[in-house]
Design goal:
- The protein starts with a helix and ends with a strand.
- The chain is globular, with a radius of gyration of 17 Å.
- 13% of the residues lie in helices and 52% in strands.
- The chain has helices at residues 2-20, 129-132, and strands at residues 21-25, 32-37, 42-43, 51-59, 62-69, 75-82, 90-105, 111-116, 123-127, 140-149, 156-163, 170-181.
- The protein contains two helices and twelve strands, in the order αβββββββββαβββ.
- Strands 1, 2, 4, 5, 7, 10 and 12 form a seven-stranded antiparallel beta sheet that branches. A five-stranded antiparallel beta sheet has the order 3-6-11-8-9.
């Protein structure tokens, strides 16, 4: 009985992990890639009424959850991944996949994208979502930055999307963050 219970718990954990993260090997390079869905990202106030969690079909057989911003004045979305999970000697890029709804408001100030790699300096850059999201209602990629996964490195690669300007924002959808080899 105990063995059946443990197997059932493992199956639930695997199911939940599949809804949070996807890992595959890119055919072109043979390198590991990751997609961290919104549930695996740290979203400030993500568990309260400021964000709405909706499911949609990513592929014909896969439902995923996305986070839809209802309203916040302090936007903070963070992700992290163990650098040792990546293929060594490979140049990677990290992108957030987001969408602005047609009625989105409060995006006049730029957002900041930050990348922290163990043993290297932190990189930050600002972009305007209004400039990037001309076709509202379409998924866009926000490039956080790139790095090389070196052999023997340990620690976490951290990537953030934030805007702490203090004015209210609405209508941003967060689908995922993707870590993939540079083209």
């Amino acid at each position: 009985m105990q063995m059946i219970k443990k197997k059932a718990e493992r199956n639930v954990e695997e199911f939940l992990e599949h809804r949070r993260k996807k890992r595959w090997i890119e055919q072109r390079s043979g390198s590991y890639c990751f997609k961290l869905y919104a549930r695996s990202l740290y979203i400030t106030w993500g568990g309260v009424e400021n964000w709405i969690w909706n499911c949609f079909k990513e592929t014909s057989e896969e439902n995923i959850e996305v986070a839809k911003l209802s309203h916040v004045c302090w936007l903070d979305v963070r992700g992290k991944l163990e650098i040792s999970d990546l293929s060594t000697g490979v140049a990677y890029e990290i992108v957030y996949i987001v969408k602005l709804t047609k009625g989105a408001t409060g995006w006049e100030l730029p957002i900041t994208l930050r990348l922290s790699v163990p043993g290297k300096s932190t990189k930050e850059r600002q972009i305007s979502l209004l400039d990037r999201a001309k076709a509202r209602g379409e998924w866009i990629e926000l490039n956080v930055g790139s790095f090389v996964a070196e052999d023997g490195e340990t620690g976490e690669v951290c990537f953030d999307l934030y805007e702490h300007g203090g004015h209210w924002k609405t209508g941003l959808l967060i689908q995922s963050a993707v870590i993939r080899p540079l083209p």
